[in-house]
Amino acid sequence: MLVILSGFPDPDGISSALAHRYLANEHGIETTILTFRDPSHQENRALLKTLDIELTLYHEDLDLSEFSCFSLVDSQKINTPIDDELKGKAFVAFVDHHKRTSDVPAEFVDIREDVGATASIYASYLRQRFPKGLDRKDEPQVQIATSLAHGIRTDTQNLIEATRFDLSAVMYLDSAVSKDLLRKISRQALSPEIMELIRRALENKQIYDNYMLSDVGFVRSEDRDGIPQAADFLLRRGGTDTVLVFGHRRRQEHRRQPAHLERGGRSGLVPQEDLRHGRGDRPLLRRRQPQGQRRVPDPARLPRHPSRPRAHLPAGA
Ligand SMILES: [Mn+2]
Fold it and tell me: Do residues 137 and 285 share a domain?
């Protein structure tokens, strides 16, 4: 079976795929986790390295004929970059926590929109299989429990946005979570490029009342995860509850610019088109609902700073 991570692999998706593979292996089903992008965020790389997780990066010469079926985890869309190659293979399972956008033709569909992480759903499957808890002495179980706990943590803003279901998943996993490994995964150094990007975000910030804009200039594809990190950092400024950080990509790399919006409060994904700069390969715009009564303006209608002309806003804004 192929377990497909269709977007950028993040800890929630990676750990869910890992648990999926583990449960499939329990039934004698050989499983490969397929991704289309190299994980670029240093925390994701650290997760793979520290827990010795192997993902298969798709390339054209990959022979998919030996796989008879596939599953999608933590992916809102049912489309993949290899839809043609998947024709004729059984669509076994679709497990996710994003808003349902279309009918899912999988044999097993589990979409729980009120859950903070797909990893919590997989923890509930493990609980059914191992009701007495996972075993701290069993290496694969430690790997899975630790990565799922990390996935839940990162998808719920360090558990701040966790639901009861997520918290009970964390409690269940606890018996086999390695705190040492978890610490190691989260305490990875920032790459010099990302630190530089955060510096540019700080230097170029424009403050309008309770919101902030920053243009970080050209960003290499491999540093794109620095944009939400810069937005997270700027959001820590007192009195700020909305941050929009955007950068530019070289034409040959990608036609669109990434942008990242951070707001205080609950988080949810909104389509990138909401920033009026076209469709990207995944939503880069994260919107958090403001707390209290304070109105947060539409980012596309932000006033323009006299020294920051139109050209500095995302194309089409
Ligand atoms: Mn997720």
Answer: no
